[in-house]
Amino acid sequence: MKYLPTADIAQLWQAWSRRKYPTYIFLALCFNVILASAAFAATGDTFSRPQIYALGILGLGTVALSAYLFVVMFQPERF
To answer: Is the pTM of this model over 0.70?
Structure first.
């Protein structure tokens, strides 16, 4: 088994710390899978799977936009 030198690990850590948006998107999609499964189980056969996933993404987008607007409204000097 080949181990990564500490310089490579430090370089990977720096690249990850600069680009956090892909991590946020990945975590949001993972949360959507959990949310969509719960919503699909709750609704039964009323909605199809693509509709449930679309509703989950729409809900996550709505929550993210409202949180952003809340921060912009109460801390306008940061923007």
So the answer is: no
- The amino acid sitting at 67 is A
The encoded tokens of residue 18 equal 């600069």
Taking the CA atoms of the chain, what radius of gyration do you get in angstroms? Answer: 19
Q: What is the Cα–Cα distance from 39 to 24, expressed in whole angstroms?
A: 22
In this predicted model, what pLDDT tens digit does every residue of 36-72 receive, in sequence order?
A: 888 888 888 788 888 988 988 898 899 989 999 999 9
Determine the Cα–Cα distance for residues 41 and 56; give it in Å rounded to an integer. Answer: 13
Confidence at 33, pLDDT banded by 50, 70, 90: confident
Q: What angle do CA 26, 31, 33 make, to 5 degrees?
A: 95
